[in-house]
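#structure-requests
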Amino acid sequence: MKIILLLSFFGIYSLFGDVTISKSVVINHSEYIGKTNKELKKILLQKVKLAAANEIFGDFIKQTMVLEDGKLINEVLVSQKRGIIHLKKEPIYSNGKNFGDLMISVDAYATKKDIDATKPHTLTLDNFQYTNDTLAIKELKKAAIDAFLVEIFSKKIKKLKEKKDAIKIARELTISIDLKNIKLNPQTSSYTIDGSVKYIPYMLEMRVF
């Protein structure tokens, strides 16, 4: 069985902060028996946009990989609804070197805004107070940190605190957490927290909501 060939040649260039990549992909008819030319072109377009996404957003894709619904992040990057891989002009379709080959060539790009949205950003919250006298001390710290995360992401997500899965959402959006100061007051069963979290804006947009 013939393996799908991804051509290795490409070029990347930047204009005003945007990143453009020239990419080509080849498939063979023998791997897609029964598919029409229209269907083959659709498959090629998806594959070449995925290849471009992996090239432009490689580090981001490696970090995040899978969303809640099981979709790979690179599939979301190229989706029509929320994708951030764009084409500068219409794709060029041609025959490949071998019998049955069909090739697509594109100039794909991502804007500076798109790229910035896939880089870690920081949210900071100081003097956060959490009190819960129904919990044992050993459980209180975890609950305080969870509440801290919900509070800090409430800056970005409206009515997050009203959601049943608010803690789950906040945890999944958190890349890393830096608690610079966390103090327990056992007399009042409370914690005071100063800290920050790193998150990726694009992931937040994917989950809102």
